[in-house]
Amino acid sequence: MAVTVKTVATTPFEGQKPGTSGLRKKVKVFTQPNYTENFVQCILDANGASIVGSTLVVGGDGRFYCPEAVRLIIRIAAANGVSKLLVGQNGILSTPAVSSLIRFHKCLGGIVLTASHNPGGPENDFGIKFNCENGGPAPDKCTDDIYKLTTGIKEYKICDGIEVDITKTGISKFEVNGKEFTVEVLDSVADYVRLMKEIFDFGKLRDFVSGKSTGKPLKMRIDSMNGVTGSYVNEIFVKELGATPDNVVHTTPLPDFGGLHPDPNLTYAKDLVDTVRAGDYDIGAAFDGDGDRNMIIGRKAFFVCPSDSLAVIAHYLECIPYFKKNGVTGLARSMPTASAVDLVAKALGKEIFETPTGWKYFGNLMDAGRLCLCGEESFGTGSDHIREKDGVWAVLAWLSIMQHTGKSIEDICVAHWKTYGRNYFTRYDYEECELAPCNEMMATLETKITDPGFVGKDFSACGKSYKVKLGDNFSYNDPIDKSVATKQGLRIVFTDGSRIVMRLSGTGSSGATVRLYIDSYEKDNVLGQASEMLKPLIEIALQISELPKFTGRNAPTVIT
Question: Annotated catalytic residue: which of 54, 83, 99, 116?
């Protein structure tokens, strides 16, 4: 079928600057005439001549406006000389699945339609990000190029006459400017399940989950929170591993996530926490909207801090066939993440990397063969099997550890703390604050903590005292491409290794989200209550930053 390419005059929109994971705005912003078209055109233009004849992956988390955006992208990609699109059925692909498809099919990249853990629906958020040929989020240079293009765009190209039924798998072909353009609508789940079977021993896990190897079926509560992981969860945990359907909940992707806030933490996954606490469950897990984040809880809702989750998985990596076969290289964490995994790296004699927040910073290290496992305190864990964090992978890793050790989740964590010590950790989120006073707060705090006289100061609260060892704004020198990322978060490090970190998040769609991180290491006192152990540092952090004064908030929106 021949189609017509037309060029549409347009003008720039302010603020189309991608954050740590793409461009996120309210749906009403994206649905303005030409807004989505402009940004997609700039993504394609940022790839230069390589876009012509290329293959791209397209899919998203199923939130409101996803199908319409997919259809727009198909028409714009065709007009710009893309040769083939691999599109998830119904426009749905988890972010880890997009990364896997890019790598498996050796694509130029992928366009991911997601606002991740942000709420969905016509009044809430939408997002678009570009993943590169390694399957990972676009690096800073690429996103900077995209943004620069958005500030001067004058026209975009789009095809008339292309209609693809994305509800059905199959191949559609069109003639565009004398060349063939193909859209293949794929089963959203099949490729990802294939990959998981290559990484984990599904036979052992099936015997463990079904109870064949233990005499008692594992009781799980796996909550997809009406996000993209529902189909993956049903296929893997129910069909492949033999769990009964009542072990999985909220597995139908919905445009507004059924009113749920698709952020897997103790606040927004309260239904999961309450159910596991009240019931006889061995493991509970939840995922965010696009499937890259995860929360793990054990019996009676024993909470696994994401920093601990990363460290525990690192300790047991070789019980997973993928790592047994390929070996363990380096380990990494984002700067705000507690340094529990550092201790494991030291014990294993492996490199440890501390990067800025944002999964893209792990990609170079993985591509260079220096990193195989990494994580962020924001409920993200993953390995070099793809170039994104991966929620379902993390749950399969924990099931593998439970099967290998024969222990409960709590017992696994306690044994880990007794071996390595414990990093007590919490994060306070102050969401949708006014941006101007938050910027003033950060500038004032940076001036304070980088003053030479700040080092050596003593601060006390709740009967505990801390002496400042270091105050800075974290910067990162990439050891692979030598790029430098500056102003990545304010750090106060004390002489006992305790830390206060503060940064403004780049994942919100409006206003500013202030994130305050508190990290305190204890070698022997590992069974205390985190809230009590961290209370002194929290009070000191609020005192030094003057956060209540600048934000007008007396309490955080979310505590994790």
Answer: 116
